[in-house]
Amino acid sequence: MTRSGDEKGRTSAAGRLSRELIVQTALSQIDASGLQALSMRSLADGLGVEAMSLYRYVHGREDLLEGIVDVLVRDLTQRLDPELSGHWQGFLQNLAHEVRRIAIEHPKAFPLVATRHPAAPWLRPPLRSVEVVNTFLETLIDQGFDDEQAVRAYRSFTSFLLGLLLLESAVRGGETKPVDEALDEGGADIPEGDGRDDLDDAPAVRRLKPLLSEDRSDREFEASLEELLDRISREVAQ
To answer: For 56-81, how does the pLDDT look when each residue is reduced to its tens digit (9 = 90+)?
Structure first.
């Protein structure tokens, strides 16, 4: 039986598929219409293929969403300026502005980076890359921070970014509520790469795992609240 032109076109498009193309197309769809509008069917239609052909490259909803997070965080890693790492303040300025750039350029996708629970306790959103966290810790420790100080700075820095940038992305159209329904019927394993146990290339993270994994949420909340009240008090006194 002769195949229709549409079937031939979909077969040809399926031959050009790759994981990177699928994830980038999903990110573009989220940027345009939001996370709630993304489905495996809409993704397949956008690529001109059958939905089932996507499963050769992404293994379900979790895998697809983690792939999008990975693309955004990889872009962050590649754009960090090594010349600004000569001083810890320059490094943190650079890192903060690059994370904010993601929130501004992809406000509807940024909540994925900011709110999805990481697979490892030493990865605090929005810094979800082991490589970034290791660079963060090593940069501060190399410049005189002790282990406790470096971890406290990491916790404070991520909390600062998470609060302000999640709000900013929401103002720009991002949604923080969960997806109403699953994007597909797949059953992904633990999200790929987010909390990998292999930390051979991240010696600072491996060494400081116990400190990074401690739950200090109560102390951090009280300290942040006191700092806020002190700042307001100073402003009122001026």
So the answer is: 999 877 789 889 988 998 888 888 88
d(CA 110, CA 177): 12
- At 54, the pLDDT band (50, 70, 90 cuts) reads very high
Confidence of residue 185 (pLDDT cuts 50, 70, 90): very low
34: left (phi over 0), alpha (psi -120 to 50) or beta: left
> How does DSSP classify residue 51?
G
Sign, CA dihedral 176-177-181-187, equals positive
Q: How far apart are CA 115 and CA 124, in angstroms?
A: 10
C-beta atoms surrounding 48 within 10 Å: 15
Name residue, tokens 């998470």: 162
CB 72 within 8 A of CB 109: yes
pLDDT in tens, 20-53: 999 999 999 999 999 888 888 899 999 999 999 9
What lies within 8 Å, CB to CB, of 130 at 6+ separation is 120, 123, 196, 199, 201, 202, 205
Cβ atoms < 10 Å from Cβ of 175:
15
Q: Does the domain at residues 59-237 carry the CATH identifier 3.40.50? A: no
Q: What is the pTM of this model?
A: 0.78
Neighbours of 2 (CB within 10 A): 5
Place of tokens 């052909």: 53
What does the domain layout of the chain look like in residue ranges? 59-237
Alpha helix ranges (H) inside the chain? 5-15, 19-33, 40-47, 61-79, 88-105, 110-115, 130-142, 147-171, 203-207, 209-213, 217-237
